[in-house]
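Build the 3D complex.
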Amino acid sequence: MASGSRAALALGRGNGACGYKPPSQGPATAPEAAPPPAAFPSRLCCRGRSGAAMRGQHRCVPRACAAGGQDGGSHGAELLGRRLGAAVPSSGVSDRHADVPVLISEDTVISQPAKILNFLRKQRYNADYELSAKQGADTLAYIALLEEKLLPALLHTFWVEAENYCSVTKPWFASRIPFPLSLYLPGKMSREALNRILLTRGGPPLYSLTEVEAQIYRDAKECLNLLSKRLGTSQFFFGNTPTTLDAFVFGFLAPVYKVCFPRVQLQEHLKQLTNLCRFCDDILTCYFKLTITGHSPSGQDTADANLQKLTQLVNKESNLIEKMDDNLRKSPQHPPRKITTLKLAAGGEESSPLNRLSP
Amino acid sequence: MSLVAEAFMNQLAAAEPWPENAALYQQLKEDQILLSDNAASLAVQAFLQMCNLPVRVVCRANAEYMSPSGKVPFIHVGNQVVSELGPIVQFVKAKGHSLSDGLDEVQKAEMKAYMELVNNMLLTAELYLQWCDDVTVEEITHPRYGSPYPWPLNRILSYQKQWEIRRKMKAIGWAGKSLEQVLEDVDQCCQALSQRLGTQPYFFNKQPTELDALVFGHLFTILTTQLITDELSEKVKNYGNLTAFCRRIEQQYFEGHDKDGSAAASARSAKRSLLR
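Done.
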């Protein structure tokens, strides 16, 4: 589901130093110790309109439109993408695709995390080159564990828990989806999430939703404990370089960790597992931070003056929108609107463009 | 179950030792049981054999309805009825028998992850093949599933079950998959299991665990069940260490016992009975 899409998106970003080996080279290339942080100029282009403009401009590189990275899935995908050098900006939800995450590359559209990862692998972006066969098998097993045990609780926290859904998830998604789909799609995603939880976990002897909820949260906490034990004190799951499994785990954990929900039992449990929190923070600082120049250091020479001009335009546009919003709010005819700003506490630069969102 | 209820159950379980007359219920071997249910039942039987706990296999047409969770197999031990491998493992552990005590925390996490892999991929693939592949449904599943019941009940029950399984497949995203994709997933899963097993006798080297029981249950059933085509069993046969693993467990835990009504008989009859 969506959590894996974060893994796939991340696969496209970042530098080429971590595990990526072009087939022509021998195994002698050693990855750099500290991967330089990836830039994401398109983080500034997080609005739907300008996102569409960005998409039109940059068809030549693999790009992912992943619902702005809110839902669990898109981040892992984004992360793997970043690690492995493909330029993956994240933009608003495409109006053509109700299915997120989705990777658009030269008119090819791929829509599920596993398929996105396969696509990136065929494009010779592979984070698992240095893993042994057994570690590859472990990756598959842990991903299955995440999908079976953690995903229902994640879906519940985002989409089914009424307070969370109404105050955070729905306005967040609706703000990125163009009208009129914004009235329909979040509700549909919520119904699908509830359906999935009830069909996969809701059989007898659990007869009511509260019993199912209790069971899935227990399973999720157990899963988090298992992940914490597996991670131990090492930096990533398989040593010092990140792999597909790290991306998947990050994709599942980061939304739980960072998004400020009213009802947060899973987040509180996660915060007690300090090594998992450290893991998420490390990845956020390494791969999801804006550089000073705003360019990806992986040699995107094609991200040139056009891009800079576009980002300046977008900045101006966003300032204008802000001013209009302020005027609207101060105007006596309109009742004061509640602004739901989302506090992603990853970093100053990262939170400010997102904070400018107003539903 | 809530935490309190589970603690209460565990306490009840711990109070008595394992009785001699424990029974394991499943559907009728010859005519009714399907691939996925047979795999689950065999996994539980293997697990109990590995723990050296005697159990007799009882075949009933309405086993699915008797089960507390709607899934087979379930065991009837003393006053308690427990279904599915996960709860049965916990129940047996509460009685003081466990196969995974010798593992450290990381290994336990790995074991649980691999069990989820088998459930996620192999079991779902078996369900897909049985209930979503039209040819198999028409020729094998419908006749077998409703065989103990008269017409029209047999058709109604099997359509109802098919509808339920298809809904579930749609919710988890498997409804859109083709048979080739499902077989590819099975291959990937078997490859992962084969790589994890390597040249060891069991998954965690010296002693079998519940993971070994689960993998044995599924792989042995796949290898010995005759379906419309042999593609599924061919996928497993590609991995020599997995077939050797199944043979080893069969020889060690199933053939050394009495022939009447034992797990060995049910395992062997699976070869002959799951035909059209």
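Residues 133-160 of chain A form the longest helix (28 residues).
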